[in-house]
């Protein structure tokens, strides 16, 4: 009998996060202030973030210690299991060996608590009373609500309106953990009110929700802002996923040939891939392929521009160099709400720009087709975001069938789809729409990028 799942004892839980900034071929470009268009200082950014988080954001140290208090909470669901997708392999008739890291075991049902807990912890240490944030499909909002409940911190969540309406049980979970949640754009902020004035039926976007959360934090004392993806410290916190996976592969005496993750902002992709990219960047695994997968309707890495842009729609947040579709681009209302972001992580963007990683984009219906196959073979119902990674896995496994290569494929199953069953119902009834890449909208959006001169 072949082993289906590989468990790690809690004693093997990572004690340090891996910071890939120490190994990048070139250092990341600096972050700029939206007010002055000059380099942002830590003092400016401290209005939004606690100082320890900012230190992690700019750190060049390869390893950052995980405080014991955080590891104690991680132990509720970590280490997460690594599964061998034997039934999916058989269904595809592929010689490839397919593995997935199952992050659906966390209390919030996704990888998001891996960074929500440390962010809440560091805010608690510095006396923060309230944290504001945005959320797309609700995974991040529910994860931060869970984390803040552990440290007696108030939490306010701005949820993209189309997802607020599509996924009512995500917002119920946010309420259950004691946080407030508002559909964005909302009437709670100047940013939200200005957008609603122009379009009362606006579907919202992550860029707009970020604007609201940033404004809320900046205008209230004892309040900080928290971001669930994109930023360097967020990607670093998620590396517990890949670090555990490496230990689990050692137990199997195997190493992946291909590592795959879906990308919206880039956090779950970073979590699974960065520890393996450490080996590639050192020169130990030069042939390792790492694939980022995104929606065809919001193809930031595959069709975006690598340029400086605002992280939010109303230009309140910091400016970073990233692959972007433009800060005021409004993605179509696909059901993978966590992938509907106009930009990508600066680190992930730099890796793509330097051809260290690859990127692929797929349509919504073909993604759900792959998710259905996975659910019917492996049993786990994946979130629509994870389904993008699964589609890529299926295609790579089919290539192995053609070539006869027994490649080892690893992907991050970043969360379950239990709150996304309405999406599956629509797919089963043929009511999911495939949105084309909105070329003209992106062209118009990219004309509004900030004029930054690198210094």
UniProtKB/TrEMBL annotation:
It catalyses: (1S,2R)-1-C-(indol-3-yl)glycerol 3-phosphate + L-serine = D-glyceraldehyde 3-phosphate + L-tryptophan + H2O. Pathway: Amino-acid biosynthesis; L-tryptophan biosynthesis; L-tryptophan from chorismate: step 5/5. This is Tryptophan synthase beta chain. InterPro entries: Trp_synth_b-like (IPR006316), Trp_synth_b_CS (IPR006653), Trp_synth_beta (IPR006654), Trp_synth_beta/beta-like (IPR023026), TrpB-like_PALP (IPR001926), TrpB-like_PALP_sf (IPR036052). Pfam families: PALP. One of its GO terms (cellular component) is cytoplasm. GO terms for molecular function: L-serine hydro-lyase (adding indole, L-tryptophan-forming) activity; pyridoxal phosphate binding; tryptophan synthase activity. The modification N6-(pyridoxal phosphate)lysine is found at residue 112. Residues 77-415 form the Tryptophan synthase beta chain-like PALP domain. Transmembrane segments: none annotated. The beta subunit is responsible for the synthesis of L-tryptophan from indole and L-serine. The gene is trpB1. It is an enzyme of class 4 (lyase). Its EC number is 4.2.1.20.
